[in-house]
Structure formats: C-alpha cells, structure tokens
Design brief:
InterPro entries: Sbt_1
Structural class: mainly alpha
Number of strands: 0
CATH architecture: Up-down Bundle
Shape: globular
Pfam families: Sbt_1 (PF05982)
Transmembrane segments: 6-25, 37-54, 60-82, 89-113, 125-146, 230-254, 260-283, 290-311
Radius of gyration: 19 Å
CATH class: Mainly Alpha
Helix content: over 70%
Protein name: Na+-dependent bicarbonate transporter superfamily protein
Keywords: Membrane, Transmembrane, Transmembrane helix
Distance between the termini: 21 Å
Oligomer: single chain
Number of helices: 14
Length: 320
C-alpha cells in the first residue's frame, strides 16, 4: 500500500482518472518528448556511474545473460499460446511487444528499488538495452516463415540486419546507450557534477512523465477493451508468468534482490514505443490497435500499480 502513496505513482493514477473522465488536461507533445528523453538520459548516466563503480565481473555477465535468455523465452512462449487465439501474424506482433521491454516501467522500478534500499546494479541498464532486439528478431523470423508458407515473399527491408539497425539506432536507444557510456567514462567525478541534473530532478520529472502516461493509458484502455477476453487475460496474467520464470532463473544464478526484481520487471513488461514503431513496417499485416492497446492499456498500468511492489515483495521472500 505504501508504494501506491509514492507521489510519482499517485500522479500516474491521477492521469488515468483525468483521462477516464475525459478531461482536457494534456501534456504538450514537445514537453512529453523532452521528459522521455530526460528520463532516458538520466537513467543511462545512473547506470554508467554504477557500472564504473562496480566494474565488470562474472556476476554481471550472468545477469546480462539471464536477461538475454528471457528476451528469447518470452516471445516464443507468447507466440505458442497466442497463435491459437488470433492470426499468426498478430500473435507474432503481440509476442514481440511482450518479449521486449518498457523503459518507463524499468525507470519506475529502479526509482522504487532505490527508495527501498535495494539499488540494482548499473549493468541492468545494459540488460534492458540488449533485451529490446531479440523479441523483434524472433517475431520477424516467424512472420517471414508465415509469409513463405503462404507463398508471399518478404521485402528486402525485412532483413534481420535492417531490423537490428532500426532498433539500435532508434533515438531513444542511442541516447540511453550514449549516456551510459558517458557515465561509465566520467565515473565518480561525472556523478558529482551531474547530481543536480540526473539525481535531484529525477523524481519530479518521473512524476510529471507518469502523469502523461496515465492520460495515455486512459485513452488506450478504451481500445484495449475491444480485445477478446482471452487476450485481456493474457495481458494481465502473462506478466506474472514471465516474472515467475525470471525469478526462478535469478534464484538459480544467485542474483542480488535488486537485480532479480529488475529482471522480473523487464521480463514482465511490454514495449509500447520502440517495438510497435518497428512492427508497423516489419509486420504491417498485424493489427497495431491490438499489440499497442494491450501493452499500454493493460500491462503497463498493471506493472506500475501492482507488479513492481509485488515482484519486490516476492523476490525478498525468496532470495532474502
């Protein structure tokens, strides 16, 4: 309950309520874009500073390896289930979104864990970046196989190299990676200099951004409600299944609680920015309202309001 009284979470709830009653409250797109870029830059710097302090070791490599494994397991599981309930191309698209990650959910979880005294390692930011692409690759391979089976050739633009280029050169990804490298190179000196920007302002900027996200969720939930009950159940229950698998993996690898929670969050989240943008041209036959509406209208608020504190509590109980 205490986690729901966090100002940032309350602003998210307020945004959902304002959108639900059709208020004309809105954050100008340019400001919303700035807030998104700020959070990514600050997150990258924080991850880089932490990575510079901890350095690279086998534990870090295991954590990144676990994240990469989840990035392949989740979309394959999702496709195997969803193909029985929607068209196979729609199943591949939805599986790609759920196999990838939500940067905003990751940022919120990082802030939550830091406030709870469970600050995660900076390498988890690296894990988040690397988890973005495997699900897209899996979905594109599945889509190309389906097209080949139907006698429809994929266009040259759907080659894996092109998809990877689009994913890693996306502006948000580039900013996150660049900020992380800068944080790593500048170390403690850079951390002290950037503290007023990437530290002191972070919580307020996150609250403002989550207000905008709440408004977006309210608008997209109306679209998500049109999905079948099976898909709505998937959007709500799949995060729990994915988080449970991630916790099992973290337990086997002996990951610290903070890192384990973030692995659970990453595995349970769904992309509604980068992956939908890639899918629009990679799998144009899929219904955007389906994969975008489910990830943003159902899974995102579930993780923000219930998932993050739940995953933290369970990980603490299991890992101590």
């Amino acid at each position: 309950m205490q986690s729901l009284l966090d100002p940032a979470i309350l602003f998210f709830v307020f945004g959902v309520l304002a959108g639900a009653v059709r208020s004309n409250l809105e954050i100008p797109p340019a400001i919303a874009k700035f807030l998104s870029l700020y959070l990514l830059m600050a997150l990258g710097l924080k991850g880089g500073f932490a990575l510079a302090q901890a350095g690279f070791n086998p534990e870090i490599l295991l954590g990144i390896g676990a994240a990469m494994a989840m990035a392949v397991i989740v979309p394959l599981m999702g496709y195997a289930f969803l193909r029985r309930h929607v068209s196979r191309l729609d199943a591949a698209a939805v599986a790609a979104c759920y196999g990838s990650v939500s940067a905003v959910t990751f940022v919120t979880a990082t802030q939550f864990l830091t406030s709870a005294g469970l600050a995660p390692g900076g390498h988890m930011t690296v894990a988040m970046v690397l988890m973005e692409s495997p699900a897209i690759i899996v979905a594109v391979l599945l889509a190309n196989a389906i097209r080949k089976e139907r006698g429809v050739d994929g266009s040259p633009d759907l080659r894996i190299g092109h998809i990877l280029h689009e994913s890693f050169t996306d502006g948000a990804q580039m900013l996150l990676l660049g900020s992380m490298v800068i944080g790593y190179l500048s170390g403690e000196t850079g951390k002290a200099v950037m503290q007023p920007f990437s530290g002191d302002l972070f919580k307020g900027m996150l609250a403002f951004f989550l207000l905008d996200m709440g408004l977006m969720v309210a608008r997209n939930f109306r679209e998500a409600r049109k999905a079948s009950p099976v898909l709505l159940a998937y959007a709500g229950l799949a995060p729990l299944v994915h988080a449970s698998i991630a916790l099992g993996l973290a337990t086997v690898l002996g990951m610290p609680v903070g890192d384990a929670v973030l692995l659970m969050v990453l595995s349970a989240s769904a992309s509604y920015i980068v992956v939908p943008a890639v899918l629009r041209y990679a799998i144009p036959e899929a219904n955007p309202a389906l994969y975008f509406g489910l990830s943003l209208g159902v899974t995102f608020p579930f993780n923000i309001l219930i998932g993050i504190p739940l995953y933290t509590q369970v990980a603490r109980a299991v890992l101590g």
